[in-house]
Amino acid sequence: MPELGAALNGYLRADAALAALVGTRIRPGWRPQGEAVPALTYAVDRLERRSVVAGKAGYNVASVQLVAWALTMAECVAVKDRLEDLLDGYAGAWSGLVITSCLQDDEHDGHIWPDDGTDAPFARVAVTYTVRHTTRFAAP
User: Fold this and answer.
1) Mean pLDDT throughout 45-62?
2) Global pTM?
3) What are the residue ranges of helices labelled H in the chain?
4) What's the CATH number of domain 4-134, 3.40.50.11600, 3.30.70.20, 3.40.50.150, 3.30.2000.10?
């Protein structure tokens, strides 16, 4: 059974509409300095391993943050909108990992000044999803 981050990466990379927006610039954790934008980063911020009295519950609940990076807020919003289409309310499978629910929790935006001394900041929109998925441990 794939790890959640790897399964999400495969699911996002398989979408032609998202690829039209960010190309292959989908990265876990961080975006390399100097990489072209728009780009997308993601991180599993929290993973709760659920248990019941008899043992493992058979599912985990994760908090996943995705950040769209671009030169304009409009480009970020286009990526964020596509993520909503792909993720919000999703139930199914990502690379064999069964997702029982995926719901958006929050969203925030802002600008980040680059470290290279240029005057143009990057726009960013971050969204957080709660993802419930099965584990390799069966429920009792």
Assistant:
1) 72
2) 0.87
3) 4-13, 16-22, 73-87
4) 3.30.2000.10
